[in-house]
Write a structure and sequence with these properties.
The structure holds two protein chains of two kinds. Chain A has helices at about 1-25, 65-85, 90-95, 100-115, 125-145, 145-150, 155-180, 190-205, 205-215, 220-250, 260-290, 300-315, 320-340, 345-370, 380-410, 415-425, 430-440, 450-475, 490-510, 515-535, 535-540, 545-565, 570-575, 575-590, 605-610, 610-620, 625-640, 660-680, 690-715, 735-740, 750-785, 790-815. Chain A is an all-alpha fold. In chain A, helix 8 (about 190-205) packs antiparallel against helix 10. By secondary structure, chain B is mainly α. Chain B has two domains: about 1-60, Recoverin, domain 1, CATH 1.10.238; about 80-165, Recoverin, domain 1 (Orthogonal Bundle), CATH 1.10.238.10. In chain B, about 50% of the residues lie in helices and about 5% in strands. Chain B contains ten helices and four strands. Chain B has a two-stranded antiparallel ribbon with strand order 1-2. A two-stranded antiparallel sheet of chain B has the order 3-4. The chains are: A mainly alpha, B mainly alpha. Chains A and B meet through helix 19, helix 27, helix 28, helix 29 and helix 31 of A and helix 1, helix 2, helix 3, helix 4 and helix 6 of B. Chain A: This is Sodium/hydrogen exchanger. Chain A: Pfam families: Na_H_Exchanger.
Chain lengths: ~850, ~160
């Protein structure tokens, strides 16, 4: 029923649109091609009410004042409505990619307009396309690019982008010319240069189409990044080739000599590197800008978009590669922007970018469909068109296979054959090719219409046909798909161990792997870029492991609230078993739920605080398993957070803080100290850590009980050996506390492991002690969390809470002169009043 | 490879001793350097001769996928199982065929920064064992280890390209 309503609504909209458009086309003047509709009918002038008035008009028809804007808005609405209709039924989109369906809707719409106007009033105008629709898609791609993956495979990507595209262009142009000479195409007025020009515009793999099709297929990430990266970076080549051959066509064949060709080659480097440099410059500007925008958080997100767009336009202005510029701008700034900006701003940027990118993509595909329904441009030449399609397809395969075969010799893990098939098959052409084709000058190129038709047909072939068959092909060839499952803890640990192992092996064999360069880059980045581009406070803050943790907490909190509301809110609190049921439900729903917060996440804060300890205790007495869940995510994030970084790993998305830098040295010290000590005791003995088990077992039960509180406490005051929040009993552990004081120049934590076996007994209490009074310390923050934040300020505050405690930690750790007070009086919760 | 061996063998005895390994500064900085060193010295020996050196390093050769078709996969040092076995040994210091909680704890302690409290370490270790331990014996056997790592691309992670 709902779909029926939607359908009728849509139909009415369309009819209105058509009616309005026909009206507009009859009455509108010619507009400049600033609009995406590009009407080119000049019939009557003006609108009603243009003549001298005789009486005061109450209401006038002001169509011509706003016709352009109205049409633009209306078209955007119509395109998005198409998308709405398409997505209404997921069964269809499973088989046919959305892009194909959008093109078909474009056909339908185009047909309707054609029926109404007898001429195609709307088509995909290249100006609109290149300046209003494409930039946001590229910016989105750059901003959300998985940097680590991208740069790991950068070699392969570049080779495919540059050499592959040149090969495609040259081979296509030459074979078509050869066929032409051979007479396969009949009587066409196209010379060799024009064929080459056509080849160059046909050669480029299109990022929009690739994204649209691969989005639904989920192939493994290496495959995806190579194809996608290639589609982005080949713009550098395409722009150059197109401009070069365009210029050659204008110059005419006779004037081309070696100098011109050399200039062409030089221009490639200039365009490509220039574009990248412009992008990098803008990326740096954005990062610097976000560093200072603390006071205008409300419009902070806007800067990314404006600067991204400016980078596109600047490159375009300097006739450099605009796509490369925007891509590198996004790639560079993503890390710093995410670190510098407030959490809500980051979210805003992310979602707004998605809206723009997706919206543009929709509009592009619909208009690609509409543009086809135009009698004027259709020139059919069987030979030309079929041969083009054939050659495009075949040469793509040849190019990819050949290049990848060479690349595989230098790759650690070669790309498989089936992956290569998909890579070739994924060489989709799209709107960029069409845009370039429309940009051709018809005075120089007589057969422009033929080329436009051919381009359209190739685009439809790749997007629709190849898009539809991509998924079955992937399944049939059993191509490795993207890993969806979350890695287990053991995997994480082992992965890390592998990293360390490999580093060690590299050390032993004295070879420099390509990790050498990566580590060099990391050092450079730490030393120069991060201090320059990142806010000092951001540097100190946690990385996004904590953010993920934070988000999970909030999400769970909301779940808890909705659950509570469903059952009658207070019932939850009063009824402990209800909480347990809820916890069990959570467990079953989320394997890694974070019920760490829910029992404490109570909106009715006042009375409930008393319940907190009892609830937790009961919970623990119930099941150990229920207990384990809170640790699950904690544990994962703990691991991520604290694992030593081997040289090999460079962190994507991490904010390198001063704290971390320090830790690096400390890490080294720690490790060194440890190894030395290990060797001293006995090289082969690994039994050092064995004595704990007994203590562990004995304390396990009691531990568990406190664990919940300490978990909470720990998470918020991590690790709490500085914040002497209420040691209200003198535990013997303070002897251990004392050892935290620095010893002779060597960082004190290095000695901690020594104490593990003996001090486990003593160690537990402080955490326990932590737990109890911590509830008072933590509760305020929990209360803050309990009032689900719905303003950026609150979230900001939340984010600050643990971070600040952590930074005090940092100061403590780094500030060796500050020995922890032995019996500190319980201070008021420091983080409570933030 | 022999040149490499010789360059490591500082006192030219024809075999490597622990001191030679430690001379490599990077190894000392490696949290699991000690364990890796130990892996070279198998079964109580104090020295590593060239053949065992090579044998250990062979674990890190990239897996040759085409060999899968032939039957002799188990014997290849660079096969996935052998790599996993090597990794397993890095955990299992007492060579009893199982990774107990304490052994895991030790590895964790070695690899994690000291900001992690002992208690957190224990919960990590416990959780890890929980996730992987299928027969509930509170330790991870080699098969359980293999199973939990089946999704990981061992070949990439444990191969060094120049050893081809």
């Amino acid at each position: 029923m709902a779909t029926l309503w939607r359908f009728t609504l849509f139909l009415c909209m369309l009819l209105m649109a058509c009616g309005g458009l026909s009206l507009a086309s009859k009455e509108a003047k010619t507009r400049s091609s600033q609009t995406e509709t590009g009407t080119h009918n000049t019939t009557e002038e003006g609108g009603h009410g243009a003549g001298p008035i005789t009486t005061l008009p109450i209401v006038t028809w002001k169509w011509d004042h706003i016709s352009v804007q109205y049409l633009v808005a209306l078209w955007v609405l119509v395109c998005w409505l198409c998308k709405l209709l398409i997505e209404a039924n997921h069964n269809v989109t499973n088989y046919i990619p959305e892009s194909a369906l959008l093109i078909c809707s474009g056909f339908i719409l185009g047909g309707m307009i054609w029926g109404a106007d007898k001429v195609q009033t709307f088509s995909l105008n290249p100006t609109v396309f290149f300046y209003f629709l494409l930039p946001q898609i590229i910016l989105d791609s750059g901003y959300h690019m998985p940097n680590k993956l991208f740069f790991t495979n950068l070699g392969a990507i570049l080779i495919h982008a540059v050499i592959g595209t040149c090969w495609n262009a040259a081979s296509l142009g030459l074979s078509l010319w050869g066929c032409h000479m051979g007479g396969a195409m009949g009587d066409l007025d196209i010379g060799l240069l024009q064929y080459l020009l056509f080849g160059s515009l046909m050669a480029a793999v299109d990022p929009v189409a690739v994204l649209a099709v691969f989005d639904q297929v989920h192939v493994n990430e290496v495959l995806f990044i190579i194809v996608f990266g290639e589609s982005l970076l080949n713009d550098g080549v395409t722009v150059v080739l197109f401009n070069v051959f365009d210029a050659f066509v204008s110059l005419g064949g006779g004037r081309i000599n070696a100098a011109e060709i050399i200039k062409g080659i030089v221009s490639f480097f200039v365009v490509a590197f220039g574009g990248s440099l412009v992008g990098i410059a803008f990326g740096i500007l954005i990062s610097l800008l976000t560093r200072c925008t603390k006071n205008i958080q409300i419009i902070e997100p806007g800067f990314i978009f404006v600067m991204g767009y400016l980078s596109y336009l600047t490159a375009e202005m300097l006739s450099l590669s605009a796509i490369l510029s925007t891509t590198f701008c996004g790639v560079l700034c993503q890390k710093y922007v995410r670190a510098n900006m407030d959490e809500s701003s980051v979210q805003t940027v992310k979602y707004a970018m998605k809206v723009f990118a997706n919206g543009s993509e929709t509009i592009i595909f619909v208009f690609l469909g509409i543009s086809a329904i135009d009698k004027v441009i259709w020139v059919w030449n069987t030979g030309f068109i079929l041969l083009t399609v054939f050659f495009v397809f075949v040469y793509r395969f040849i190019g990819v296979f050949f290049l990848q075969w060479i690349l595989n010799r230098y790759r650690l893990v070669p790309v498989e054959l089936m992956d290569m098939v998909i890579m070739s098959y994924g060489g989709l052409r799209g709107a960029v090719a069409y845009g370039l084709a429309v940009l051709l000058d018809e005075k120089k190129i007589k057969e422009k219409n033929l080329m436009i038709c051919t381009t359209l047909i190739v685009v439809y072939f790749t997007v629709i046909l190849q898009g539809i068959t991509m998924k079955p092909l992937v399944m049939w060839l059993k191509v490795k798909r993207a890993a969806v499952a979350e890695v287990s803890l053991l995997e994480k640990i082992t992965n890390k161990m592998f990293n360390h192992t490999l580093v060690a092996i590299e050390d032993i064999s004295g070879q420099i792997g390509d990790n050498y360069f990566r580590s060099k880059w990391r050092h450079f980045e730490e030393k120069w870029m991060t201090p320059f581009l990142m806010k000092p406070s951001a540097r100190k803050k946690q990385d996004d492991v904590f953010d993920v943790f934070h988000q999970l907490n909030l999400k769970d909190a909301m779940e808890y609230v909705t659950e509570g509301e469903r059952r009658g809110s207070l019932e939850f609190v009063r009824n402990d078993s209800a909480i347990l049921d809820f916890k069990k439900k959570l467990e079953s729903e989320y394997t890694e739920a974070m019920p760490d917060i829910p029992p404490y996440m109570i909106h009715d804060d006042g009375a409930i605080r008393d319940h907190i300890p009892s609830v937790s205790l009961e919970m623990h007495e119930q099941t150990m398993k229920a207990m384990r869940e809170p640790e699950a995510v904690d544990v994962h994030h703990l691991l991520d957070q604290h694992l030593y970084k081997s040289r090999k790993q460079y962190r994507h998305g991490f904010s390198r803080s001063d704290f971390k830098i320090n830790r690096d040295e400390k890490e080294v010290q720690e490790i060194f100290q440890r190894t030395m000590r290990n060797r001293l005791e006995s090289f082969k003995s690994a039994k050092m850590g064995v004595s704990p088990p007994k203590t562990l077992v004995k304390y396990s039960k009691k531990e568990q009980q406190e664990k919940v509180k300490t978990k909470r406490g720990n998470k918020h005051t991590l690790p709490p050996f500085t914040d002497a929040s209420g040691y209200d009993s003198s535990y013997p552990s303070f002897s251990m506390r004392a050892t935290y004081r620095p010893g002779g120049g060597i960082e004190n934590p290095a000695f901690m492991p020594d104490l593990y076996p003996t001090d486990l007994l003593q160690e537990i209490p402080p955490w326990l002690a932590e737990g109890e009074p911590d509830s008072s310390m933590v509760a305020p923050s929990l209360r803050a969390q309990a009032n689900l934040p719905n303003s950026p300020m609150e979230m900001h505050r939340l984010g600050l809470l643990p971070a600040s405690t952590r930074s005090t930690d940092t100061k403590q750790m780094n500030n060796d002169q500050l020995p922890p007070p032995p019996t500190p009086p319980p201070p008021p919760p420091p983080s409570g009043h933030m | 490879m022999f040149i490499l061996f010789e360059s490591l063998d500082r006192d030219n005895r024809g075999c490597l001793s622990p001191d030679d390994f430690e001379a490599l500064g990077g190894l000392a900085m490696n949290p699991i350097g000690g364990r890796i060193m130990e892996a070279f010295f198998s079964s109580g020996q104090d020295t590593v001769d060239f053949s065992s050196f090579v044998r250990i390093l062979a674990h890190f050769r990239p897996t040759d996928r085409n060999r899968n078709k032939e039957g002799a996969q188990q014997e290849l040092p660079s096969s996935r199982t052998r790599k996993l076995k090597f990794a397993f040994q890095l955990y299992d210091m007492d060579r009893d065929g199982k990774i107990s909680r304490e052994e895991l704890l030790q590895v964790l302690r070695a690899m994690l920064g000291l900001q992690v409290t002992e208690e957190q370490l224990q919960s990590i270790a416990e959780r890890a064992i929980q996730e992987a331990d299928l027969d509930k014996d509170d330790a991870i056997s080699f098969d359980e280890f293999k199973k939990s790592l089946e999704k990981t691309d061992i070949d990439t992670k444990m191969s060094v390209s120049f050893l081809k």
